[in-house]
Amino acid sequence: MDISIEKKIEDMDISSPPPETEPLRQYWFMKKLRENSSEFQRKKGFRPRAFIQTFGCQMNERDSEKMAGTLEVSGFDISGEEEEADVILYNTCTVRDNASQRVFGRLGVLKGLKDKNPGLLIVLSGCMMQEPTVIEKIKASYPQVDLIFGTHNIYKLAELLYYRISSGSRIIDIWKDEKDIVEALPSNRKYPYKSGVNIMFGCNNFCSYCIVPYVRGRERSREPKDILREIENLVDDGVKEVMLLGQNVNSYGKGLKPEISFPELLRETEKIEGLKRIRFMTSHPKDLSDDLIEVMAGSKKICAHLHLPLQSGSSRVLEAMNRHYSREDYLSIVRKLREKIPDIAITSDIIVGFPTETEADAEETVEVIKEALFDGAFTFIYSRRTGTPAASMDFAMTDEKIHECFDRVLKTVQETARKQTLRFVGRIMPVLVEDVNEKDPEMLTGRIPQNTVVHFKGDRSLIGEIVDVRLDEALGFYYMGTMVRE
Ligand code: 5AD
Ligand code: SF4
Q1: Is 383 in the pocket of ligand 1 (CB under 6 A)?
Q2: β-strands 428-436, 466-475 pairing
Q3: Does the beta carbon of 323 sit less than 6 angstroms from any atom of ligand 1?
Q4: What ligand has the least distance to the C-alpha of 311?
Q5: pLDDT tens across 316-375, in order?
Q6: DSSP assignment, residue 180?
Q7: Does the C-beta of 127 come closer than 6 Å to ligand 1?
Q8: d(Cα 30, Cα 125) in Å, to the nearest integer?
Q9: Which ligand 1 atom sits closest to the C-alpha of 349?
Q10: How many angstroms separate the CA atoms of 187 and 185, rounded?
Q11: pLDDT for 224-254, tens place per residue?
Q12: CA 173/CA 420 separation, integer angstroms
């Protein structure tokens, strides 16, 4: 916890009305909530317990860390189990339909918990809540939900929760559009040694299958000085690795005054003393510059890993997806990357079964995977999202055919990933130790710069350190290794 934030909350005068400016206004409500929490503790003998479940991407993970920080400074215990919680918060995702269905499924279970603990507050936030049809459905059929907000007002959690508790009635607060970025919120990080850092919010690309631009709003970049200060504070707090987060980091900085490019931001980040590793995601191929490749190639801290979503290997499908690059453009970026950064790992996202996609198109995707030699890829079956342009396009394949193509794509990715993993066997690599191995307490688990997992013998005191490990054996998508130097 940032001590200066803690002090500012402590200094808030809650006998006068809340300030209008952010984040001070939220600090005021955090202090008010602390009073509620103390009252709760006096009555029950323990602090109110909050449980947060995150669905979806790293952006949501980071948002959840901020909400966890807010709840913690507001006097909640956030370390416990869902079954025992007094506040349950789901930070939702809607990128594919199964993510939304999981949330609705869980709400049924929460109803049972609420029957047992009538004081339980159920809170929903995030991308799914930006969809009007979801809100209608919850209003009509899920009376157990107490508080709903979206993606643009996550920073207002303290205020909304305070009003929900004091009014006793359900609050729904969804903003259609984004407003200014609010800095300096408390955060409770999941890992002591690594952290996500938002560099921008929203997306302007409108890929025709994707709901993100509708639920996360237009692209806004954070000021470089705010980003760099946040990273410096994280490093002071023990963080070794940061992941710079944005839907399309390659267009970072547009609209800022003075304008700054993503490679320039990386150069500044590299200068931060004590920071050991820099990662970023996601890169859109259409905006990937030669300058970025140069910065990566010359850097000691930027990891040799690029997540570069392909989506499809067919130029015709890419055009229908509104991706603004062709199969050849994509492959030429990959060639350049592999030439300038020979050890780089390239991972990707692939969609199978996009409307109009034929078996021949899917076969082109298979060819590109083989040629690009992906070190890994997330493969998805297209999911229809209401309101997106692709939702009104027709399918060219049956469900059965789509699944057949999906299996072929997945198998090809597994083959290239396995092959790529073999290339580092025998090498000594720096490994950031992340945890004790789940299955064997004598073993540690960490990651090489390329992001591949390595298991090796070692003491848990090394968690958070970077150690040299010889990669002895590749087992599918991970390594078994031996530590050679601490
Ligand atoms: N259906 C399937 N996959 C999708 N993605 C985004 N929208 C959809 C959709 N409607 C995938 C893309 C993106 C990743 C985060 O999710 O591959 O890169
Ligand atoms: Fe969605 Fe495309 Fe934006 Fe990524 S770049 S969030 S896939 S619209």
Answers
A1: yes
A2: antiparallel
A3: no
A4: 1
A5: 999 999 999 999 999 999 999 999 999 999 999 999 999 999 999 999 999 999 999 999
A6: P
A7: no
A8: 18
A9: 17
A10: 6
A11: 999 999 999 999 999 999 999 999 999 999 9
A12: 48
